[in-house]
Specification:
The model has no long low-confidence stretch (mean pLDDT 89). 66% of the residues lie in helices and 0% in strands. 11% of the residues are buried. The chain has a domain at 75-137: c-terminal domain of poly(a) binding protein. Helix 2 (30-43) runs parallel beside helix 3. It has helices at 3-9, 30-43, 55-94, 99-109, 115-124, 126-137. It is mainly alpha-helical and 142 residues long.
Length: 142
């Protein structure tokens, strides 16, 4: 074989004889791949059976867990608001007023106490809560 024929047989050779061949460097991914796997398996620690050992099931489990966590951070806010409203409503009925009339009266009187604090007042300081109710009823000014 002549050198010209050999040129065409090399793995990186193209049909251009005179151009210099530029080969991209080889990428060795082992370090990043291991980091990625380790990160997922660490996040799956404590999961049941293969969900904390096998990469594919662990990845699936971690992705679902993250999605549920994101969703439930918002659900938690709704749940607490429901709880506060239930507590305020119960305490308001003890003071002969409905929840909606209490909140409306507070807005009209210019009392700016949020539901969280109002529910805490209803539990720990019933007298203070009844003072707010009298203000909301319009019997007294703030």
């Amino acid at each position: 074989m002549k050198s010209e024929e050999c040129f065409h047989l090399t793995p990186y050779a193209s049909h251009y004889k005179d151009e210099e061949i530029k080969v991209m460097p080889r990428v060795k991914r082992s370090l990043t791949a291991h980091k990625k796997r380790r990160k997922i398996l660490k996040a799956a620690k404590g999961f049941f059976l293969s969900r904390n050992r096998l990469l594919r099931t662990a990845t699936e489990a971690v992705n679902h867990a993250m999605a549920y966590a994101y969703r439930d951070r918002r659900v938690r806010k709704r749940d607490f608001r429901k709880l506060w409203i239930a507590r305020i409503s119960a305490a308001a009925r003890l003071n002969e007023i409905s929840y909606s009339r209490l909140i409306d009266g507070m807005h009209k009187a210019g009392v700016e106490i949020d539901r969280k604090i109002l529910s805490e007042l209803a539990i720990h300081d019933p007298r203070g809560f009844s003072e707010i109710v009298t203000i909301a009823k319009g019997e007294r000014t703030a």
